[in-house]
Amino acid sequence: MKRAIITGATGAIGMALVQLLVDKGIEVLIITRPDSKRNDRLRKLADNKINILEWDFLKLSELENNTGKEWDVFFHLAWAGASGQGRNDMYLQNQNVRMSLDAVALAKRFGCKKFIGAGSQAEYGRPYLNNCLAGDCQIDQYRLTPVTPTFPEMGYGYAKLCAGFMTRDYAHQLGLEHNWLRILSVYGPYDGENSMMMQAIKGFINGISPDFTKGEQIWDYVYSKDAAQAFYDVAENGIDGKTYVLGSEKERPLAKYLSITRDIICPGLELKLGTRPYGEKQVMFLAADSSELKKDTGFECKYSFEDGIKDMFKWANEGVVI
Residue 277 belongs to what domain range? Predict the structure, then answer.
């Protein structure tokens, strides 16, 4: 891989992926929405291997390759309505599916040989909820795999599942290789300001504990730099047509993640656990089986959760706005 295209580069995984590719000497073309409030992040990336193209994602079908270059891999991370009420906006999520298909055709026009899309744990829904609440949650038995039955419960999950299947078939129609990474929980610099970990870190830095649920959920968090490495490894060695599950395989109760984060940033601060009710259709169990990903690509997480939080804390203290 000598040249790569990225959509959705302003998020936690996207920013980490851009840096990783540049560090490896790969030329990057970032396609971003003109009205994105996050574009200032991209403009601060001073490197002659980074090209920034602002374009309306609803008009990707009109974008032609005027770069004078052939590109190798297309990383599609862009997605509207990934949080908040937009997650269940059916019309918005349907637009995301169309946009993803347009991205496949765009990859073909730019000469790419492989298309890699960002899926989500939301594609699974809550397949093991009753077992886990009944105290019968055997971690290894219930890890999410590429063939775990999918029962999404909101527009976001429906659309991600649909986009994964449809972009794979469309990519193959156009002669492109395809991979889809179902991502569990990610944390890292440039994460969404309303994510639980970002709210926790902002609060702890200011000596304040936000309101949290009881934190009984068992989740699998992976650091954004490790997630970026996984996307790179799939680009280099992923087997065409495969879906992979991306997680750390080091799941813990959310209360434990929060106490570790508190101890690193503001030791002694009382956590407000149980002051916030669980949301409707709360996902109580998320644990990855990333064995296929590891076997095919050689991917391994390098960051422990503690190391990732220390890295984020350092990033925040360097004056970067969270």
Answer: 3-317
- Cα–Cα distance for residue pair 92/7, rounded to 1 Å: 17
Residue 124: which CATH number?
3.40.50.720
Cα-to-chain-centroid distance, residue 97: 17
- Please compute the mean of the pLDDT values over residues 185-194 and round it to a whole number: 91
Q: In sequence order, what are the residues at sequence separation of 6 or more whose Cβ sits closer than 8 angstroms to the Cβ of residue 211?
A: 272, 275, 276
Structure tokens, 111:
């000469």
Distance CA 223, CA 104 (A): 27
- Encoding tokens for residue 231? 């996307």
Q: What is the pLDDT of residues 156-189, one digit of tens each?
A: 999 999 999 999 999 999 999 999 999 999 999 9
Q: How many domains does the chain have?
A: 1
pLDDT for 136 beyond 70: no
Its pTM stands at: 0.94
Give the closest residue to 125 by CA, choosing from 268, 280, 17, 6: 280
